[in-house]
Design a protein that fits this description.
Blueprint lengths: L13 E5 L2 E7 L8 H4 L5 E5 L3 H13 L6 E6 L6 H6 L9 E3 H7 L2 E4 L3 H14 L5 E4 L3 H9 L9 E6 L3 H10 L10 E7 L5 H12 L3 E4 L2 H13 L4 H16 L4 H23 L2 H5 L3 H30 L2 H12 L17 H6 L10 H20 L4 H22 L2 H6 L3 H25 L6 H8 L3 H9 L11
Parallel strand pairs: 3-4, 3-6, 4-5, 6-7, 7-8, 9-10
Antiparallel strand pairs: 1-2, 2-10, 8-9
């Protein structure tokens, strides 16, 4: 793994030891807000284009962080947008010039942050590029557009900085933890940043300032190319698609073993989103195995070594289809196909009827980290870690996209609602990916992993897990973990 270092003329940075070298990171916190005017030098107006969960969260966080600096944050929406009323309710209005037509807001901004849906951005980016003022910076929170431009032979316009700040969590959590940061300094959602084009010579500090203003407690460097590959592949794997396929397969497994519906839900979905998630978040991956007794550890080991291989095969296939543009094209095709009708929901399968009852009886009950479930889940997580490492991603990106985002951002929401709710209410890009790949994972667990788990564990695979360098990287990243958890009511 190559060394990943950068410098800043504005912010105090920190070097983090990772396997094979070092990475520079920026620990965040509100004590850095006084440095934001220097980071945003030359920017008097920021245009946030779009009002989805990320648009709402980022516009509000930027506005609050930059209050008193003379930098204005304005929201741009397409004509007739149903989001205008909610933007007004959050304090952005036409009267003071902080809410308006997306192209007009673009034309007035020194930094234009593009947060409309991926497929919509692919369809309309030329209009936006045409409206940019000379020298304005282009900001992204996802590399989808870069992947689309590559597959279509397009490119970003010359003469503009192109930067990205990519929070590793849902928009709701970006806002919620930022607000918690008012009383707990450092509360927030980790973010990566990338500089794709540095026309001004100040793009790194501009990106870092944007991340600090969002409340990111830990900002690490990536590239726009690396970001979209890891992000889109990750949401189809351990972040969403794989966990959906896993809990569906486990629910059926436990029902066949004699569990009633509530017990089967607890042993599958509840175990992952509750005790397994909490153990990884606070103590790391190996702690899940170490806390089990002898028979439980043997069950974990057999499940782990049975699931690692088929999970790795699927994740490699997903990664290839993201890298060659297949997954991106499928999102754009779906946008055309579904433009005038809602996407069907996945929450009709029998297991989800048990979720409300399980959540209602949580008080006074301590869910167990079911060993079979834990082995399968950790194996899938490690398969993604190894695939991303083999593809050359930096360690901060690997641990954030494969572990931290799952256990500290997405799984808490699944615990409060359920996995199906998450799939049915996430971005269209993620939702399409989960619906496509979740059943593939489900089939792999049922047809390959479950039968193999009846045999002995593979000692070499277990040794590779317990001695894996990811544990060092995760421990280093954990030192920057905020002291508060995402709480969903």
């Amino acid at each position: 793994m190559s060394t990943n270092v950068f410098t800043s003329a504005v912010f105090p940075l920190q070097t983090m030891d990772v396997p094979g070298g070092a990475e520079t990171v920026l620990p965040g916190g509100r004590h850095l807000f006084g440095l934001l005017p220097a980071a945003f030098a030359g920017v008097r107006r920021i245009g946030v284009i779009g009002w989805g969960p990320q648009g709402r969260a980022q516009a509000c966080n930027l506005r609050d962080s930059l209050a008193g600096t003379g930098i204005t944050v304005a929201v741009g929406l397409r004509p007739g947008s149903a989001s205008a009323a909610d933007a007004r309710a959050h304090g952005f209005t036409e009267d003071d010039g902080t809410l308006g037509d997306w192209l007009a807001i673009t034309a007035e901004a020194d930094l234009v942050i593009l947060l409309i849906a991926d497929a919509a951005l692919a369809a309309h980016h030329e209009k936006i590029f045409g409206a940019l003022r000379p020298g304005a910076a282009i900001g992204l929170s996802h590399g989808f557009l870069l992947g689309h431009l590559r597959t279509t032979g397009g490119g970003f316009p010359a003469g503009h900085d192109v930067i990205a700040v990519c929070p590793k969590g849902m928009g709701d959590s970006v806002r919620r933890l930022y607000q918690q940061g008012a009383s707990v300094n450092g509360a927030g959602i980790n973010a990566s940043f990338a500089v794709h084009a540095d026309h001004s010579g100040r793009a790194v500090d501009l990106a870092l300032g944007w991340s600090v203003a969002l409340g990111s407690p830990y900002t690490f460097r990536t590239t726009l190319d690396s970001e979209y590959r890891s992000d889109i592949a990750g949401e189809r794997a351990i972040l969403l698609g794989a966990v959906h396929g896993l809990v569906e397969s486990l629910y059926g497994h436990y029902r066949l073993a004699g569990d009633d519906p509530l017990a089967a839900y607890e042993h599958s979905c509840e175990a992952i989103t509750g005790p397994i998630r909490a153990t990884i978040s606070r103590s790391g991956l190996t702690a899940v195995r170490e806390q089990l007794d002898g028979p439980g550890r043997d069950t974990f080991d057999r499940a782990y070594t049975a699931a690692y291989g088929p999970s790795r095969e699927l994740i490699a296939e997903i990664y290839d289809e993201v890298a060659d543009g297949t997954e991106l094209r499928s999102v754009i095709l779906a946008e055309r196909r579904l433009a005038d009708r809602p996407m069907s929901r996945i929450s009709g399968s029998p297991m989800w009827a048990a979720g409300d009852a399980v959540r209602a009886r949580r008080a006074g009950r301590q869910a167990a980290a079911e060993p079979f479930t834990a082995g399968l889940f950790v194996a899938t997580m490690m398969a993604q870690v190894d695939e991303f490492a083999e593809r050359g991603h930096p360690w901060s990106e690997i641990v954030n996209e494969s572990i931290i985002e799952a256990v500290d951002s997405l799984l808490p929401y699944m615990h409060a609602r359920d996995v199906a709710y998450m799939v049915d209410n996430c971005s269209r890009t993620a939702r399409l990916g989960a619906r496509r790949w979740g059943p593939r994972f489900q089939a792999a667990y049922e047809q390959i992993a479950f039968p193999a788990a009846a045999g002995p564990a593979d000692g070499e695979l277990l040794a590779a897990f317990t001695g894996h360098p990811v544990h060092q990287a995760l421990a280093a990243a954990a030192k920057l973990r905020p002291s508060v958890d995402i709480h969903v009511t």
